[in-house]
Amino acid sequence: MDKTIGIFGGGQLGRMMAQAALPLNIQCTFLEETTDCPSAVLGPVFPAGTEQGLQDFIASAEVFSLEFENTPLADVDVLIREKLLYPPRQALATAQNRLLEKSLFDQLSIPVAPYRAVDSLDSLQQAVAELGLPIVLKTATGGYDGKGQFVLRSESQIQQAWAELGPAGSLVAESFVSFTREVSIIAVRDQRGDVRTWPLAENHHHHGILSHSIVPAPDSTDLQPVAQDYITRLLEHLNYVGVLTLELFVTADGLCANEMAPRVHNSGHWSIEAAVCSQFENHIRAVAGLPLGSTAVIRPTVMVNIIGRHPKSEDVLALNGAHLHLYNKTERAGRKLGHITLMPDDSSELTGLCRQLAKILPEPLALSEAMDIQAI
């Protein structure tokens, strides 16, 4: 099948989508601000932020997708006058606004923490009075990897929280969720309405950035069908095509939705080697109108992000069962430079393998302090 898919964004997610597309004879083009982006080696890059760049991008492909939920809606509106976009605009617009997102969760009876809209210091004070403390104050739009958030633990922090986030515009205050761990479920829906889901991933963060994901999430047998039900409600309500991710908290009362991402997701990078069909290939299949592949796991795995500084490639590849993915990015504090998927032949060796990796990473992330995978 010869087809071209245009991707809004040229980062590592676009790069891995394009890598999955090539064996299917599908080419990709990209709309990105920088021409030396991670995806540049895999297809033409058109300059974002210019009318001509957008028009040339629209002319470059038959169907379009995205790698980032902050894709400008104005660009999408120009595109959909002429071409198809998967996932649909409604999914993108909803994911870009936390208030719209939480309202959708409420509408579909997907549990979510109590929340209030905040647009002034007075409304923030009222939210604190109604929700109690602690609360998490977030910008309604923008923000990722822990950015655009403030945790209020005492009333004395109200002024500071408003000073830091108030200028960003519309905010949302959420009750602080008491949870035991964070998980995510990734699913894909094709153009005929067929839905496939991957197993839950248990996610660990360090300084607000995803450090590593464990798949399948330990002790998730009872959680998996509930998470599948929630994400299927979203997929069908939105008439969604492509990969969707739902981040969830595990609480004493069950699963509580955090947020959704209308795209392939960092917690699903493990699927390149450890699933029969990866999130990237299945997303390309769905967008191109092809049948979906199996989402079954080959064997348990851990995906570890490389953040800030690169390890020595030879040290990583010397580990039995390690698969290294680098994104062609320069080193910078807090920047995702690549990821490592660990899947030894004997899954009982997985915890030990993680500990070996922790010793050779320049930035230990949460590995040295939170890498406890006893349940695998």
Strand percentage: 25-35%
Broad CATH class of the largest domain = Alpha Beta
* CATH topology label of the largest domain: D-amino Acid Aminotransferase, Chain A, domain 1
CATH architecture term of the largest domain: 2-Layer Sandwich
Number of H- or I-type helical stretches: 13
Shape: globular
Query: What is the CATH homology-level superfamily of the largest domain?
Result: ATP-grasp fold, B domain
Q: How far is the N terminus from the C terminus? A: 40 Å
* Rg from alpha-carbon coordinates: 20 Å
Number of domains as seen in the coordinates: 3
Low-pLDDT parts are none
Major pleated sheet: 9 strands, antiparallel
Which structural class do you get from the secondary structure elements? alpha+beta
Q: Total number of β-strand segments?
A: 18
SSE topology sketch:
Elements: E1 3-8, H1 12-21, E2 26-32, E3 45-47, H2 51-59, E4 63-66, H3 73-79, E5 84-85, H4 89-95, H5 98-107, E6 115-118, H6 121-131, E7 135-139, E8 149-152, H7 158-165, E9 171-175, E10 181-189, E11 195-197, E12 201-206, E13 209-215, H8 223-237, E14 242-251, E15 254-261, H9 271-274, H10 279-288, E16 301-307, H11 313-317, E17 322-326, E18 336-342, H12 350-360, H13 367-370
Parallel strand pairs: 1-2, 1-4, 2-3, 4-5
Antiparallel strand pairs: 6-9, 7-8, 7-9, 10-11, 10-12, 10-14, 12-13, 13-16, 14-15, 16-18, 17-18
Helix pairs in contact: 1-10
